[in-house]
Fold this protein.
Amino acid sequence: MPSVETMCGGGIGGGVSARHNDRVTTDEFVVTCPYCGEDCEVYVEPDVAGTFVQDCEVCCNPWRLRVSGRGDDRSIDVARADGSE
Ligand SMILES: [Zn+2]
């Protein structure tokens, strides 16, 4: 159980130094494999953009993953990377 610090606005000597947002950078996406239909989590480095290929961890077929947007607005598309649609 993490202790919840009292969130008193201001009044802390020296100012707030350890501002902690609960906002989590969305590095992980759940994609549905176009081959086997399983939902799989994909980790995408924060600085990754564009298209890359990764194998499904369930059926090992290649996905073509396309990252669009940036920051918290990122989304990911998955398609087959073997040339078939
Ligand atoms: Zn699969």
Q: What stands out?
A: The domain at 28-80 is CATH 2.20.28 (Rubrerythrin, domain 2). Strands lie at 28-32, 39-43, 50-55, 62-68, 75-80. The mean pLDDT is 80.
